[in-house]
Amino acid sequence: MGTLTCHYKRAGSEAPDEVLTRFRTLARRHAGGRVLDIGAYQPDDLLCYRNLGSLALVAADARLLAEPPPGAEFVDTGLERLPFPAGAFDVVICRFALCATPDPCRAAREIARVLGRNGHVLFLEHARAPGVIGQAQDQAQRMLHGTRHCRLNVEVVANWQLVGLVMRRLDWYWPPCYARAPLVQGVATHPDQRYRQELAWLRGTEIPGGKP
Ligand SMILES: [Zn+2]
């Protein structure tokens, strides 16, 4: 598939500095071990990557190829099928990437697959808003379908949850001046073992108290 560029990565329509700074701080705090970065587009995005075990860059802006961080590997791939084994990464960083891929849910599933059991996904995306704004986004998306615009109405949190990840942290940012998609950033992980067992139990047994 062709490579779409997210609206927020284009010159003149960047996400607010405070949001980008907050996300980079989050990334700096978590980045360690084996890292997969999806969608880096500014040199500052790569500043936190020192002393890593390994760093794979997917869907990175071509300008970043000029000065890659030490040991970084640029991997040319779509997100629907990532060329890495299951559990390959301790941290996956995902920046304005789900909106630019043809099938965000499948991309989320692939990211969950390559995330190690105790790994973290850090994401910053624009998302479908609830209520009327979300409906307007759906309508706009229908009109834009087939154009070179990134997808306006990705249900970011629902996508992570659909593929089995749980939210450890979630921050929304609503642009103050004009109606645009809200931005959402957060940390998602696999559920811990105990939680997984509880979920299986809830799904596979009768409701407690239902029996005499
Ligand atoms: Zn986008």
How would you describe the overall organization of this protein?
By secondary structure, the protein is α/β, with parallel strands linked by helices. It has a single domain, classed as 3-Layer(aba) Sandwich (Rossmann fold). Helices cover 27% and strands 23% of the residues. It is built from five helices and seven strands, in the order αββββαβααββα. The protein has a seven-stranded mixed beta sheet, with helices on both faces. Helix 2 links the parallel strand 4 and strand 5. Helix 2 crosses helix 4. The model has no long low-confidence stretch (mean pLDDT 88). The structure holds zinc ion. The site of zinc ion has 8 residues, from loops.
Number of domains: 1
Bound molecules: zinc ion
Mean pLDDT: 88
SS elements, strand count:
7
Sum up the structure in keywords.
212 residues; Rossmann fold
Short description:
The chain is α/β, with parallel strands linked by helices and 212 residues long. The chain has helices at 17-30, 104-114, 131-144, 156-162, 193-204, and strands at residues 34-38, 54-58, 72-75, 89-95, 115-126, 166-173, 183-189.
Strands, helices and their partners?
Elements: H1 17-30, E1 34-38, E2 54-58, E3 72-75, E4 89-95, H2 104-114, E5 115-126, H3 131-144, H4 156-162, E6 166-173, E7 183-189, H5 193-204
Bound molecules: zinc ion (ZN).
